[in-house]
Records
---
Amino acid sequence: MIRKSGSTWVLAALTALVMAAVACGGTTPPGTTSKGTITVGGFAFPESSILAQIYGEALAHDGYTINYKLNLGSREVVAPALKSGQIDLYPGYAATDLEYYNNKAGEATGDAVATTAKLNSHLQSLGLVALTPSQAVDQNAFAVTKATQAKYNLTKLSDLAPIANQLTMGAGPECPTRPYCIPGLEKTYGIKFKAFKALDTDGPLTRAAFANGTIQVGLVFSSDGDLNQLGLVVLQDDKQLEAADNVVPIMRQTVATDNVKKVLDNIDAKLTTADLVTMNAQVSLRHQDADAVARAYLQQHNYFT
Amino acid sequence: MTFILSSLQWLTDPAHWQGPDGIPIRLAQHVQLSAESVAIGALIALPIGIGLGHFGRFGNLAINISNVGRAVPSFAILVIAFQLFGLGDAPIILALTALAIPPMVTNSYVALREVDADMKEAARGMGYRELAQLFRVELPLAVPLIMAGIRTSAVQVVATATLAAIVAGGGLGRYIIDGFATQIYTEVFAGALLVALLALTTELVLSALERVLVPRGLRSLKAPASRRATPFKTA
């Protein structure tokens, strides 16, 4: 008897949750008739939720009804959802998406425009399209501490070449064998480090090694939220060694009207990697909600006026 | 079979025997980490075990507390200590020391408890004071069991020091972690083989040391009568 009433409670709670979720799902702008409904999806990491809601909120402001399907999972879940029309749009990354849609043919380069063009050649037949890539990137990057940066006056990876023999570099144990890492740095930039320290890929070991001075250069991701807090500076990849993982909206062609493109292009034209770092920090370090962070970003950049 | 062969090839490749990544350096790091941990563990565990065994008090308490070290996974200690101490050898040595202590406490306690009460009484009867009795009579008799505890600790520590590589430390575990990251599984297997060999060597070296440390009189009891240093006189 007790057990039964218990499960009834659970059922009631679940029903309430589902109803609340349905109620929250659509955001129609006040006082206007909807220009149409767009479902925005996202990957299961905070940056994707932020980007999805920046796109979504901007479109909602322009008069569309927006449904969100966030934290769907990896690209293996999100891309099929787009193809089948369960979602209409997701914030993609040019190089990684290209290598997904071309079945890892290795076509991605450091050139964002060329990579996106290649991506579109694969999306075309699927009824999908990638819009203009933003300059904001979330890709492998090499960082130094502010002290190292000041000492050697570094801004870009080319600056490292003459002094690299004084520095120790840290990354995951696979770095010495991967083209984007040590072999690439050597081939593209002529950088040869004094030593390599096997740590992890952009994880706690790399951070600890920066903190106690074991390494001076380390592999991170360019949009990591804690870069500012740790006093790390990403060196510009001036010879485009890393595949261009610029943020780019990928969507269904039927939804990509001129007006929708205009709204999204307008956002991507201004979005920077520094914005990603700031917003990722707000979500992952200060535990703010992704939707609030997205709205604040749009407000600050006068998209709501 | 080809996998095992290629692992052996990896081991015999001269390129893997030189440089900062070479087997001699990694082996030295592994031995150093293990030796430091067992030494620190012994400095903590042996006085506790021997003292409590000698006085015959609080033995169960000490054994139970030190057994916590066995129950908590070394991996967890390592990760928590890494949060506290950051990069370096400290987290590894802390985790390995915690692993090294319990067998040494337990064995040395039992070793001292097992000393024949008649022997102690005889020592007292001959005028030995407390410390003299402990050092000249009880400890020599307890050596085999105490050494067995040290041996158990050392072998466990050598095998577990592999974890050091997880927090960017050195040692033979590097081959396992690096081989896994680069999907060179022959390197992983070769690393595991090296660790196993080192653990066995540790066992053998400490057994030899035990044989040297055991007092002659005690040794002779195990030897055949003809080779006894001091043959028992038949009255």
Note: DSSP finds ten helices and no strands in chain B.
---
Amino acid sequence: MAFTISSRWLRWLLIGSAVLIAAFVLLVIDPSGALLFRIVGLIGMALFALSVVTMLLTFRKARKLSPWSLAIGAVVSVFCTWIFFALAGAPLSATAIVLAIAAGAMVGVGWSLTNLLFIDGNMVRARGNIWFLAVWALSLMMTQVAALAGGKTPYAVALVSFLGMGLAVGNSLGLLARYFRARGLPHAAVSVTGERR
Amino acid sequence: MSAFCTRCGARLSGSQKICTSCGATLAGSNEPATLAEASQSAAATPSVVLHFGRARAILVASLVIAGVALAAALIVIGPKAPQSPPASSRRMAPPANPTATAVVPPNTAIAPPVAVAAPPAGSGPTAIVAKQWASYVNYRYGVIIEYPADLFEIQPPPPDNAGRDFIADKVGARFFVYSHANALDASLQDLQEEDVLDIGDRMAVKNNGADWYQVTATKGTDTILRRVALSEGGSMVHRLEIAYPKAASAAFEPIVARMIKTFRVDPTIPEKAADAANAAASPAAPTSPATPLLPRTPAESTAAPPPATPSPPASPKLWQRFDSIALGLRVPDYSGKVGISAEVPASWTYSSSTNSDRPEPNVIDFQGSEAAGDDVLHILFRAERRGSKATLANEAKKVKTQLAEGADNYRLVSERTTQVASRPAIVLSMQFAGSDSPALLREDVAIIDTGQVFYFVTFGAPEARYAASSNVFARVIETIGFVE
């Protein structure tokens, strides 16, 4: 049986290889890694700016909801945070951790409620509105302000991490609940988000 | 059916009832019956209503506001970041009077006392209270820091009075202030990278200034803040390290912030101390008392007296210079010149390996008298004839391999190619676990290439005592000389 790689996978393979080679070259130029991490930081800032622009341009665009991707998103967020703090140690008390997760989850659930869900054929789709954009901006601001106000101390880093985790989990679980509620409705194009009028 | 969405302009297929781009209901949908089935109420018009209702808006707003308020409360309640750089960027006079230190109450208007009752995990109900602040002044190097004297207990001074340890046993915290020469002329960046590796926390937070840097990291259950300031154009290194339980971060961070804010080097202090000492020793000394180094404010006169400061030993000789020729150092089967000389602490004892079961005539060892076993401090000098194809890099590799294979938890903290006494050298700093106990040990090795002979200078210390005693290795490297 011939082994073939689809053009899509080939493209990602090439991109991944190029990134690894570039990282290797940067490490050869500066073995301390300072140059590599500086460039990674700049790329991160550029991607952050790009993500803001993308969100502003596409938040109204309908996207397919998948229970698996929502669940995986939540699980990955919890897993990564857990791994990070299991290795690095969390400089927060258990109460502070719970409160930070709860704060993030409240915003996350609120954000999930701003999605406008509708059924299209066999799919559940969601699209954003101005509330969606506003809560997204607020959540972004919340984590950035927390990081700035905390002054990059281990406490602030941990706080922002747990806030982010709570937000991801709250949003995913909120959307999951609404997804299953939508699937339970009669098979038709019905909004399960807004009020009927 | 329109070919394009009238709302967003997206291209549509013939059977679509909803625009998958914007979610809008398509005008002219020809399947109203299907939509009607969806509604169990006749009053409910079967259509996609993308209206964000008032009730939902209130719910979303409530959740978001509550979440943001809770996050804001956590930020406000949480500790503030330590921020200020050390005050000194000026040149400091050379050490003038290496004998005195003092602990005095602070003399300037400063923040009110910090009193926080947030005990660290596992430390019982002990409150972390910092009401009585005092200043520690090292007159030899002109280092000053304010610290809560009711929390930390000052420890006896080391023989060379290079700094001091402070311990708060009840709350599991400690800090130290030490100064030493930058014998290897390491840059600020090199020192910082070594500190990050030394602590072993890749997520350490680093802050820098023109002549200082700071590393905040976690190690086990502790938070470690290490602040280093350079003076005399980078030739002197002043270290402050504060360690406290992570669980008590909220209580400690305001205390730590004040401590690092007051940690500074004042180049006038050693000069004033020397002047005061000279004036006191002079027969024509005036009867009036010398100007106090740190004048007291009226408020301080009513304050409780600071804890008594143990005086450093009055030994006039802190360092002794040894000569390997007098001690009988020789390299077997080598007739060339072999000789090394350096200053080691005067209180350390020479231990000749020729008295042991396996005599090594090419080794000279000095040991600190403060402890024994794995806890001992020692510095060892070894001379070896150069092999036919030996290079400095190969010798360094051999040292690293030997330790990596023979010890647990081996870690290379730093490796630097430099010059020692104008000879090419490689200086390694390594960490590993002891053979008899899991306690971490530290070993600094300088491998010096003098042509026909390689000299290995090894400084060993328990990791817990390394920072406070690393000035010994710096002094040896600074004063070392070889026979020509």
Note: Helices of chain A lie at 7-29, 34-58, 67-88, 94-113, 130-150, 154-184.
